[in-house]
Records
---
Amino acid sequence: MFCLDCRGAPPPAFCYYCRGHRHAAHRVIQIRRSSYHDVVRVSEVEDVLDITGVQTYVINSARVLFLNERPQPRGAGAAAGKAAASPYNCEICGRALLDPFRFCSLGCKLVDTKRSNAHATATGDQDTNHQAAAEAGGSRSSRGRRRKGIPHRAPFWS
C-alpha cells in the first residue's frame, strides 16, 4: 500500500496493519495480484493519474487496470481465439484489446508518454528534412530482438 497524503519523494509504503493508526483517513493505493499480475483499482487511481485510453477489466466485481505489460495469449485456447478476433490492439506491445482503448496497461501508456515527450523535444531541435528521412528509414518495434529464438547448442563433436 502507498499513502498519497503523506509527504515523501516516493509515496511512503506501509503494510495493512499500519494503516489503522497512521493512515486511517488518508488516500491509499493498494497494489493487488490478479492471475500473477499486478493490478490497481480504478477507483483508487482515477483521481491521481490520467488513465484515459487504458483498458480496464472487472475482476471479482472490482474494476481494475494492469500496471505492467501483459504477455500475449499462446496456444489455441479461448483467450487466443478472442484475441485473434479483436480489431483493437495495444499501440505499444500489440496485445489484443477487448474494447477500443489504446493501451493494455499503465506501463504501456507510460512508454507512449515518454516517447511522445522525447519526440517533442527532438523535433524542436531538428529540421523537417532530417525528421522525414528518419521516419522513412523504417520503424522497429519497441523490442529489438525476440527474447527467445532458436536455441544454439554445442556441436556433438569437439
---
Amino acid sequence: MSALLPRIQDVASLPMMVKQGMERSVELQSDVPLQVSRKHYLSLWNNEDPEGDIWTSGSPSSHTVLDVSNITLLSSLESCFRNTWKPLPLLVKIIHKSRLRYYGKFGLQIDYPFQAYFEVADQSGTMSLVLWNELCPEFYQKLSVGTVLYIQNYSLKQSYSNRSHPQMDHHQMKTFHSVEICLNARNPTSVVTVVSAKSVLPQWGLPEVSYLFTTRLQLDELSNNSACDVICLVTFVGRVERVKSKGKKGPEKFWTYRWIHAVDGSSDRPFILEVFSSSQPEVFSRICPMTYLVCTQMRVCRVEGSLPYLTSSCETETFITGYHKGQPYVSDPRVKTFIQWTKTLKDNVVLQKTSVGGHYCYPRPPQTFTQSIADASAQVPLVAAADLKKEMETLQYREHKKVAIQGQITAVRYTKHPKSTESRGTEEREQVPDVAPDVCEPNTQDHPSTAEQTTAPISTAEKISVRGIKRRIQTRKVKQFSLSLRSMAAKRRSSEIEEEEEEKRATLDLKTLRMSQTASEIKTQMSYLGKAAVGRSRNRKCLNICRSNLQPTHWTPEQSADTSPPVVCPGFYQVTILGINKQMAIDAAFLPVVSSDDPRAVALPQDPHGNTMLSCLSSGFLCPLSHSQSTLPQPEEVLGSAGELEDMHLVCILDLCHLGGDRVEVLISKVYRVTEVSKCTAL
C-alpha cells in the first residue's frame, strides 16, 4: 500500500470492497459515516469548520424575476413580532457573516446541529438572521458578505442576548436588536433565493457594504476591544495550535488558531494577529508569507507592557491571495492604497525577512507573577509539580497550554543546531536530504535524561556523523559531508584535555552542586523537547505550510522530497526544574531570542541586562538584540553564570504543546524570583 499510494492522484478512484448486495447502498454513495447513524462528518481539529461534500458552494445565483412589490422592511418586523401573521417577503443584503456554531451533544436527535448568524440590512436598518440545522450545509458556503437574499416563509424570535455582535457603528444605520430572523428547513419551510449581482437594481435601496480598515500606525490609537479591518502583507506565519473553547457545557470543543505578523508600510512595527479558523479551512491552512491578507472584524487587545495585538471575533473573515476577487472591499480606497505600496517592494528583499512555524506565544508573561494556585480559571494556572505529568498526559493533539510551576533549576545544558544547513547553499542542502531533517530538528527520543547528561556529551559534528552512519546513507556526497565533519571534529579534539575543556564550556550541570543529594529521592523525571519548537526562515511554500499546519484531513499524493529550511536560532538551552516536593523533575527547552529578525523579538522589552543565565531566563533574550549575532555572548559565557541559580526558589512559566503521538513540547518562557511574585500567590 505504501508503494501504491504515491501513484494515486484521485483517492475516490480506488475500488471499494463491500459486502455482497450493498454495492448500491445510499450510504456508500454518500459522503457520510458508515458505522454510526450520522448524516455528516465533523472537522477533525475544531468544531467550526465545514467538513464533507454536503457543504455545497459555488452554486449559481438565481436569475429569476422577483416580485418585490409586496416586500416588507426590517423596521416593521419588531412591531409584527408575536402577532399571528403571514410574513411578507424580505429583500436584504448580507453585511456580516459569523463562523459556524456546532451545538451537537450526546442524545440530541438533530441530524445537522449547526447554526450560523448573519447581519442583514435594507434601506431601513440592520437585523440578525439565523441559519439553522439542515440549511447550514445547503447555504452557508453560498452566502457571503455582499450577497442579496430574497427570503420567504421565515419566522421571528426574540434575540438571544448572550451572543457576540459585530461592531457596526461605521455603517451608520439603525440596528434592530429585539428580534431576529430565523430560517429553518421545516415549521415553517423557509425559501431562500440568492439573487445574482447582475439582477440587483439600484431602486431597491440596499446599502453598500462598509469596512473599517485600519493601518498599523492607527492601531496604537484604538481602545481595547475596538473592532477594525486590516489588509497587510504576511511576513511570519506560526504553526497551527488548538485551545479548548471556553464554554463549560456540553462535550469538549476546540478552536484552532495561529499567530501571524504582517506589515502595511505605515509603521516599522508589524501587525500581530491571533487568527482563529473562521469556518474557512482552505484559507486558514494556506496562509503563508508574501500573501496579501485581509481580516475583518478583528478585536484590539491591549495588555500592559506589550504592544497591542488583534484577535479574531466570531464575525471575523479572512481572505488571502487568490480569494480576493469579487469581495466588496476591493474597491475600498484604503485597499487600493495598500496595493500601490506593495508595488514599491522588492520580493527578494521582503522574502529574506520571512519565517514560518516554530514556537510563538504572545503577549509575554507580565513582570510580576500574580496568579494563585487556588485560581483554576487563571490564564496561567499555578500547578503542583506532581500534577504536571497529568497536565501533559491529558493534552490533545496540538493543544497549547500555559502553566506555572514552583521549584529550583538544578541543571542547564546547551545544544547547538548544526551550522551545515544554515551556511551551505541551497544546492548543497538539497544534496543531503537524509541528514538535514534530523539535524535541523532535535529529536525528543534522542535526548537522555538529566542523570545521563552528567556524562561527556558528544559534539554536534559527532551527532551528525553517527546519525548518518545509522541511516546507511548511500549518496557519495553525503558520505563526504559526514567524513568532513568527522575530520573537523577530530581536529577540534586533538587531545583528551582539550576535549574535557570543550565539554565543560558546552555544559554546566548543577547536579554536581546539590542534585546528588536528592537524586535518589526523585520518583519521576520527564524529558520533552518538541521538533516543531524552532521556527524556519525563507518561503519554501509547500514544505513550510505542511510543517506548520495540522495533520491533513484528506490524503493527498506525497510532495517531492525537500530539505528543511534553515533554522532561525543557533541552539537551545535544556533546563532541568526540580519541583519543591523534590519528587518530580522536568526538562524544559529554553530558546532565547538572539536576533532582532526573530518574530519573537517584536515587542520585547529592550532593557539591557547582564546576560547571566537568570537574566536571560527572565527576559527571554540575549543582550543586545541586533541583526548580527557577532556581538552576543557565547553559550559557555551564559552557562558560566548559572551557579547563581543554586538553591534559588523560582516560579517557571512553561508552554506545553502536544505534537502528536507521545511527543509533548515543553518550553520555558520566563522565570520569576520570589521578589517578583505577588503576595496573593501561595508559595
---
Amino acid sequence: MVTTTFFSRARRSAVHAPNKIRGFLALPGEIRNQIYNYYFESERRCEIVGNGAQFTQRSPQTIKLSLNLALAKDTTPAHKSEANIIPPTAVRFPRPLGKYNAVRGLCTNWQGSLHALSLVCKQIYSETATFLYQKTVFVFNAPKRMVNFFRFASSVGIENITKLHLHYNTYGHPHRTDFRIWQEKHSQSW
C-alpha cells in the first residue's frame, strides 16, 4: 500500500508540454535573415544634432584651367539623374541621449522610430541589432553629442557601426589675435 503524504505530492513535478512558438519567430532562422535583409535594404540616417542644425554643403570652387579649347565630340560621361535618387529616411534626436521624461512613461513612437521591427520584442532586437547599426548612417555636429551617444550605445551597436558623418563648422581665421583663443578652444573640443 502506497501512502502519499503532503510532502511527496509537493515534490512531484508537473510535466507540461513546451509552448509552441507561432508566427514569425516559428520561421527558420535562414528565412528570418532573408526577411531582415529585405527590411534593412535601404540606408537610414540617424541625426543626433540640435533642433536648428542645418547640413549644407558648399559648392565646389572650380577654376577654368584652359581657354579656347574646343573638342569635336563631347567625351564627358552623362551624369545620372539625381531626381530618381530617393533620399534616405532620416530621424533626428535633438535632446541629449540618456535623459528621459519619467512622467511620460514608456511610450513607443512607431512612426518616429528608425526601424520599428527592432522594437517588437527582445529576440527580434537581438537578431536585428547588427543590421540596424550596419545600415544606419549616424550624423553628429558636436563632439559632446558624439561622446554622449557612444556612452549610451550598446557594445553590440558600437561594434557594428559602419558609417559616421561628422559636420564640423569652422569660424574661419580670427581677425584679431586676441580672438585666437576661441578658435583654439573650438578646435580642441573636436
---
Amino acid sequence: MTNRQVLMLIAAFVILTLGSFIWFIATWDADKEQLIGYAPALIEGATV
C-alpha cells in the first residue's frame, strides 16, 4: 500500500468514528434513558 492509501484509510476511519459519535449525540433521548445513579445494583452473590 502506498502512503496515500494508508492516509485515506486512516481518514476514512476517523470520519466514520466521528460521524457515528455525532449521530449518537444527535439522536440521544435523555428522557428514554434511566440515570446511572438510580439504577439498582445487580451484584449477585454479594454479602452486604
